[in-house]
Write a structure and sequence with these properties.
Chains A, B: It catalyses: 2-[(3S)-amino-3-carboxypropyl]-L-histidyl-[translation elongation factor 2] + 4 S-adenosyl-L-methionine = diphthine methyl ester-[translation elongation factor 2] + 4 S-adenosyl-L-homocysteine + 3 H(+). Chains A, B: This is diphthine methyl ester synthase. Chains A, B: Pathway: Protein modification; peptidyl-diphthamide biosynthesis. Chains A, B: Pfam families: TP_methylase. The structure is a homodimer of 269-residue chains. In chain A, 30% of the residues lie in helices and 20% in strands. The longest helix of chain A has 14 residues. The first copy, chain A, folds into two domains: 111 residues, Tetrapyrrole methylase, N-terminal domain (Cobalt-precorrin-4 Transmethylase, domain 1, 3-Layer(aba) Sandwich); 151 residues, Tetrapyrrole methylase, C-terminal domain (Methyltransferase, Cobalt-precorrin-4 Transmethylase, Domain 2), CATH 3.30.950.10. With 269 residues, chain A is α/β, with parallel strands linked by helices.
């Protein structure tokens, strides 16, 4: 029959599109991908909204264990729900290809993701360079490669969207080799942590292109009623509490006049 | 009261989010912006769907004549509907700022736009560089500056999304100085025209970084059931009919293995 790839959007159960809602309602089985991002609501609230079971899938399931879902999609209408837009993460293209191999029809229902919703800052989407990801540093693993990408963007006057690390259902180091894994509590990088790491990386690079005085935007809970968008210098964000996750961060390139106006608009009062 | 900025999404009346639909239903006045992009349906179909009048606004209205809308939003719930996500185009940030100045509350309801929906190609969104716009060349105006941006992206192995020109409600040259303007029929650039112009610009630049053999994607009607996504070499698109608008185009940088697989997936059969 068909496997729907459905974007759930950014914040809650009402961010799904009408088309997506109808697809979920028409489905015999509904899967929920919940490891590359999170909605700001629980699975239970989704289940209540639809009066339907949502089968939670983790990275392991989607990457190597999704036969059950695909087999079901052979003879049933099945929805695979993803927070944001369905094609933010690699593994879903794998699924797409496997559907074709198995002769299962696919239909994609798009939605907002941070990659376009960040337009709410007033920064123009066509003035962004390469997107970077900032991973949680560990004691022995402190990769600074993102700084080089920021520098390249800035050299061309372009803004940089920084996606901040999310750790959901990560096995503990101790359980990595065990059959039954134990999982760490979920962690979501804050703008503050991102900025600490950005400053460390900039120092390492001799503060070449960006520094503590660079103009930035912090974004939290975009799409939710209690969203928070703040402009400020990089160092300011060491002291700004952006509240609950998810956070994203932007390092500004050259600001055009309208962008400058929006930068002022979002200054903390 | 409040001015809602509502993204209508990509294709038809059911691409609005549930939240957006409820906002429109609760509004005393609903405005429709229809000059930076188009839905694949008519205003009448939207009006039927909501049983409500949609007041069409053009560029002139939004940029210099929107006092009526803002005044109404002082005391009423008003929706300003935009195809895609509300913050694709500059002028809406102007509106945002004017609302603040007038003490009108704003609420943003996000949606998909081509900038994230292009993920359906399987190309990874964090591997894109600066987005470019390709304008219709005229006899005397053939700007090649987009080629230089593509070259910069390619030098770093990054993909380039090309937004293709849309001309909606453009005054005719003859009527430019007249009080009552006459308008040209709407024009939407096809992938074929974009490729002709891309090749001309590449020739001009001595085929430095991209050429007729560069790998590309053509996208048409993304988000609609009859969408068409095709991979091929730049020159192939001179002969590929992508059908009705809207079209977008992507010039690939380095393809990672999963991306290569999706490139094969979308080869015309």
């Amino acid at each position: 029959m068909v496997l729907y790839f459905i974007g759930l959007g950014l914040a809650d159960e009402k961010d799904v599109t009408v088309k997506g809602k109808e697809a979920i309602e028409s489905s015999e089985f509904v899967y929920l991908e919940a490891y590359t991002s999170i909605l700001m609501i629980s699975k239970e609230r989704l289940e209540e909204y639809y009066d339907k079971e949502f089968i939670l899938t983790d990275r392991e399931y989607v990457e190597s264990n999704c036969d059950e879902m695909l087999e079901r999609a052979r003879d049933n209408v099945v929805s695979f729900c993803v927070v944001g837009d369905p094609f933010g993460a690699t593994t879903h293209t794998d699924l797409f290809i496997r559907c074709k191999e198995m002769g299962v029809e696919t239909k994609v229902i798009h939605n907002a993701s941070i990659i376009n919703a960040m337009g709410i800052t007033g920064l123009q989407l066509y003035r962004f360079g390469e997107i970077i990801s900032i991973p949680f540093f560990t004691e022995n693993w402190r990769p600074y490669s993102f700084a080089e990408k920021i520098e390249h963007n800035l050299a061309r006057g372009l803004h940089t969207l920084c996606l901040l690390d999310i750790k959901v259902k990560e096995p503990t180091e101790e359980s990595l080799c065990m059959k039954v894994k134990e999982y760490m509590p979920p962690r979501f990088m804050s703008c503050k942590t991102a900025v600490e790491q950005l400053i460390e990386a900039a120092k390492e690079n001799g503060y070449e292109q960006y520094n503590e005085e660079s103009k930035c935007f912090g974004l939290a809970r975009v799409g939710a009623d209690d969203n928070k968008i703040v402009s400020g210098l990089l160092k300011d964000f060491l002291d700004i509490d952006m509240g609950a996750p998810l956070h994203s961060f932007i390092i500004c390139g050259e600001l055009h006049p309208v962008e400058e106006e929006m930068y002022e608009y979002y200054q903390p009062s």
